[in-house]
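Lecture 7 notes: from sequence to structure.
We start with the chain below.
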Amino acid sequence: MTIDAAIQILDDGHIIVDSQHADARHLLQHLNTWGRIYAYSGRYVRAKIDRITLWSAAAQGIRADEIIAILRSASHDVLSPTVQHTITTLMERWGRLWLEGDFYTLSLVSDSPKILTKLTSKSLLTDLLGQHTSPTHIRIDPLQRANLKRTLTRLGWPVDDRASLTPGDELRFAWNHAIALRPYQLDAVDSAERTSHGVIVLPPGSGKTFVGVALASRIQRHTLVVTTSRAAVQQWIDSFMVATTLAPSHIDTYQRNQPLPAVTVTTYHQLIATPERINQADWGVILYDEVHTLPAPIFRTTAALASRRRYGLSATLVREDNRIGDVFSLVGPQRYQLPWRTLETLGYIADVTCYEVSVSHTRTERATYMESAIRQQGRLAAIASQKYDVVVRLVSRHANETVLVIGHYLEQLQELAKRTGWPILTGADDSATREHVYNQVREGRIRVVILSRIGNQAIDIPRASVLIQLSGSYGSRQEEAQRLGRILRPKADISATFYTLVTTKTREVDDAWQRQQFLLGQGYRYQHISAEEIRE
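Predicted structure tokens for the same chain:
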């Protein structure tokens, strides 16, 4: 690395940042806007600039020369012509292709006939492109609107969707001004409202739901909200009711044999199961909650809704299957984003200290682990028996705080509940049971609750300041970040604490490293301690 340079930039777009350099924090904030931080190794942060991040930056009005100037300054002018050419070429492609027209006469348009001629020769586009109506216009089937954008994105040509939208049925309601949006929430709403589609990225606990509700209240049209779980559905309904003047009769969950309410809140699972009925309603706004979790079948359904205003909300715009390009092409580019640590500094989310606690197998457990097939070793690593004792000691260490214990394996959670008597909630519990326990926690009558993966998202326990992760879904960066987000509500005079328990000398060590990468990219650091260091 160049002496006193903050970064080293490789020709393939990878960037290595010296996190101890004086300019590192400023540079990492920029990288969160037009790059993708993916790993930490010692003092060095590894990031990458790629097509999706650069196109999203271009969609936000960031110019290639601005990015190049930042990189040249940070690397002391050691920036190869290859990297400069790649950044400039990719960002110049944004705005060269766009859609115009309406649902009945839709055209793919370019400012260059040569680009369209080149694209018509691509076999992947044969069934998606119609006839040339001019050297710069090609007629397309409106039903192929989303499929065309997705295919062109994969071919390296982003499409700016400027075509008119299906307006949707009108719905009059107003924002309840007793609920004051924070400045960044207003900025996010303004940024999204200026466009017809796109993604807003904000941390858990920062009020993304209110951003979505505010968008709907400004647009004043029938609205479909798609979210991850029944608990999240109820949170959206509650947020509409408290933050707007919407009549209760105008908002409800999706029910198979009932008329669709003007504001319908449903889950991704329900949308997959009954896409035709939901697609046929005259929506003016589609809100995709936790848009990074879009399951593959939803992409097809989303394609059918491509002529509507649509916005995605996310805390972790990453996917382990690397299909963020599909979110970009079907829902839209990133329109607004704030780093987690920025909101922490402003006091809108809690200050969190993260610990990785090393535990060990017993001799018997170690022997079983070593003799097992690879596909079984993940579970055997995660359910090390020493974790039970460590959790009890950690809970004692935080005797005056509300603690969430969360894990992936039901037998592990049930064993912990049996040993401690702490209440446990899983997917088998109905909504009424869950809400009863959550209310007791909110009121301070229960201090510790054990949660299965239902606790990954959409639980409202503002008191919680400690989360102990017993086990996780292998190397999921999403899950790690979402779980930390359960304790991000700011509390007076108390910081939050996140513990992840990792069994040494097992594959769980590598999984933990992978899981932590998104949070490390947001500026969090894990302190490494052993089980023996935990004292009650």
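Points to note: Residues 253 and 265 are 5 Å apart (CA to CA). DSSP finds 22 helices and 23 strands in the chain.
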